[in-house]
Amino acid sequence: MDNKPANNFLHQIVAEDLEAGRVSEVITRFPPEPNGYLHVGHAKSICLNFGMAERFGGQCNLRFDDTNPEKESPEYVASIQEDVRWLGYEWAGEVRYASSYFQQFYDWAVHLVEQGHAYVCDLNAEQAREYRGTLTEPGKNSPYRERSVEENLDLLARMRAGEFDEGSKVLRARIDMAAPNMNLRDPILYRIRKAEHHQTGNQWCIYPTYDFAHGQEDAIEGVTHSICTLEFEDHRPLYDWLLDHLPVPSRPRQYEFGRLNLNYTVTSKRKLKQLVDEGVVAGWDDPRMPTIAGMRRRGFTPASIRKFCEMIGVTRSDGVVDVAMLEHAIRDDLNENAPRAMCVLRPLKVVLTDYPEGQVERLSAPAHPSREDLGSRELPFTREIYIDADDFREEANKKFKRLVLGKRVRLRNAYVIEADSVVKDAAGNITEVHAHTVPNTIGLDPEDGIKPKGVIQWVSASAGRQATVRLYDRLFTDPAPDKGDKDFMALVNPASLTVVEGAWIEPGLAAARAEQSFQFEREGYFVADRHEHSEAAPVFNMTIGLRDTWNNG
Ligand code: ATP
Ligand code: MG
Questions:
Q1: What is the pLDDT of residues 441-465, one digit of tens each?
Q2: Is the dihedral of CA 269, 270, 274, 277 positive or negative?
Q3: Is the CB of 269 under 6 A from ligand 1?
Q4: pTM
């Protein structure tokens, strides 16, 4: 079973529970609320919960915590399943829904009422707040707290039957209004919500609160280790109280870990939804979004996200992780696995005046410098080519290791060329460079001993293809866009997207599969867009640049 050393405190706990026979197998779950797309923080929770089951030969459920119908939707239910699968995990059995336990929750609510542990309360929200007290002052008992069991049962049944308006009544646990832990001050168990639910339709007009549902869902499913984020630590006494007072079929134990926060990023579905709703991004899967769907469209691989989650580890503190670490994980993966290709983002035409018109040489280049298994690609060489405008200057000092008038440069995987003259338009802009090839320089240094100083990418003007290339920068200009009272919406980077319409790509790239990744030499890693790329109209998204800014030393 477990023969790897524990690499976080939860592994340790589970290993000890198994060893001591406190549990016979480990059952975990990933319990998202379907009120948005999953983000990179959820990836941490997914890797932790599914990883735990994998590691100890147990099972992990996917369960929707769908107790809040107004904010949820089938689109989110579908996207969440797709994202979990894409990350490479499979849940045990069918997907589960808290809503399929609604009858059981209701029966348990009746049970609590019968035992004198719950009551129907008519205080409105404002009054309830007053009665609740503060962190330093105890609360006061609700005037409805001493209702008889019979009256409570009758009122609860009528709440369920739809007799009362939203907000007019709630069911509350009867615990202790003076408890130092505010969560124990007679918390709400059921609310009236005359809302249609995406799974149960109009069957219910009262809905359990998250706090009433969550622990019981785990108990129904036999979850042994309920792993959740630290903000639920203060709720644990309530969950334990409920489990103690209900005839639940099993007894889950809750353990908390620190949320993942990334700098330059927001990880809250509510905030991400605002970016989508207000049109700041093109949708939940916009490649700038820290959603799993966005990262996928950006060219992240499941392996890189899993690797990142492993690198950050699991602790009991909420830290901020440098986004450069996430970028490091994907760069590492793509450096190893992405075929190389050439793309010219700012095209400048070069005419090789010595090269015969109409001649095409079919040069061959390895797809990857160290991965022979990735094969080779064909690069047609012609009289007219494009190079990047930034790779040419009429004059330059020695530090400029690219093409300069009267000087030489090597075209990657092809000839050494030497620039002779430029053609300019009326405004003085260079429109063309005239150059000549240095003979016999494919794979060889010039025979005259005058070596080129640098190597640049190029694409044949007649055989190459045009593509749309989207370049991305961070979505936020501030390292902590939602910290304190900052308005994250005002900190969106106006230059987070640059669309290059007329880039030139080597011809083979047009046939890339959607979601296929490449290193565009000297530019970065790019992926064929999942939805919009086609052979007729190629579209590539930048995943990440070449330079690694994460320093783990
Ligand atoms: P959000 O605030 O983005 O809506 P949430 O916690 O409300 O997140 P849920 O759908 O309830 O979202 O989350 C499902 C699971 O993912 C929970 O167990 C939660 O603890 C975990 N989770 C959510 N955000 C993070 C995060 N940033 N880091 C680690 N785990 C997270
Ligand atoms: Mg939530």
A1: 999 999 999 999 899 999 999 999 9
A2: positive
A3: yes
A4: 0.95
